[in-house]
Amino acid sequence: MPALKSRRRNTLGVDLLDHAFQYGRLMRLDRPIGTWLLLWPTLWGLWIAGKGHPDPGVFTVFVLGVIVMRSAGCVINDFADRRFDSSVRRTRDRPLASGKVSSVEAIVLFVALSLVAVALVLTMNRLTQLLAAIGALITIIYPFSKRYIHIPQLILGVAFGWGIPMAFAAQTGEVPLLAWLLWLTALPWIVAYDTIYAMVDREDDLSIGIKSTAILLGQADVFIITLLQLLLLIALVLVGKMAGMGLWYFIGVGFGAILMLYQHTLIRQRDPDKCFRAFSNNNYFGGVIFFGMALDYTFSGV
C-alpha cells in the first residue's frame, strides 16, 4: 500500500512537471527569439527617452513587461490558431494543436499573464497605462486578423513597436515627435522580418486559408522586403540626426545594413530554411542598433 501511494505521488509529480513544461512551450519560453524582437525596439525607446540613462525602475518594469506580454501574445495566438496549427508542419506539435494543453487551460494562462501585466503597468503613470491598454487591444486583435486581412504583419508591427511610445511616456511623461518617428522606423523592420517569417509557411498557409503579406506579395516579396529594409535604414539615420546621435550610433546602423544585405542573400531563392535563418538574424540587427546607441550615449556624452 505505501508503495502504491508512492507511485501515485511520483506519477502526479511527473504530470505536474509535464504540464509546466507544456505551459512553458505555449508561452514560447523555449524560443526566446520573439522576446528579443519585442525587446529591442522597446530598449531603443528607453535609451533615447532617457538620454542613455533610463530610470532603473522603468527599465525593470519594461523588461518584465516584454517577457510577460510576449508570453501572453503567444498563448492567445496559439488559441486563435489551434485548428490551423495541426495542418502546418512547423506548428503541428504545439501544445494546443497536439492536445497536450486544453483550450480552457490556455485561456486561464492568458488571463493570469494579463493580470501580471496589469500589475506591472499600474506602477507607471496614467499616460503609460493608457498606451498599454491600446497595446493590449492590438495584441489580442493580431492573431484573429490573419483570417480577414492580407496584411496581419502590419498589425504585428504596430504591436511590436508599441513599446516605444510607452517607453517615452513612462520615462518623460509625454510622447514627443521623436518617439513617433522611432515607432514608424520600427514598423517597416517588423513588417519585413515577419513577412520573411511568413515565407517559411507560405505553402501551408495557402492550403488552410491563412492570410499574410508573403501570400499577398507573391513573387514581389523579396523586392518589397528589400524596399522596406532600405526605408528602415534611412529612417534610422533620420532618427539619429534628430536625436543628436554620433559616430557610434551610425557605426551600428552600418553593421545593421550589412546584416540586411546578408538577409537578402538568404531569402532571394525563397528556400524555407534559409528564410527562417534570415528571420532569426533580425535579433542581431536589433542588437547592433541598440548597442550602437548605448555606446554612443556612453562615449559621446549625448
Characterization of this structure:
This protein has 302 residues and is an all-alpha fold. It has a single domain (12-300), classed as Orthogonal Bundle (Tetracycline Repressor, domain 2). Helices cover 78% and strands 0% of the residues. It has 14 helices and no strands. It has helices spanning 2-26, 33-49, 56-80, 82-85, 103-121, 126-145, 152-160, 163-172, 177-200, 202-208, 213-217, 221-242, 247-267, 272-300. Helix 2 runs parallel beside helix 14 (272-300). The chain is globular, with a radius of gyration of 21 Å. The N and C termini lie far apart (72 Å).
Set out the fold topology.
Elements: H1 2-26, H2 33-49, H3 56-80, H4 82-85, H5 103-121, H6 126-145, H7 152-160, H8 163-172, H9 177-200, H10 202-208, H11 213-217, H12 221-242, H13 247-267, H14 272-300
Helix pairs in contact: 2-3, 2-8, 2-9, 2-14, 3-5, 3-6, 6-7, 6-8, 7-9, 8-9, 9-12, 9-14, 12-13, 13-14
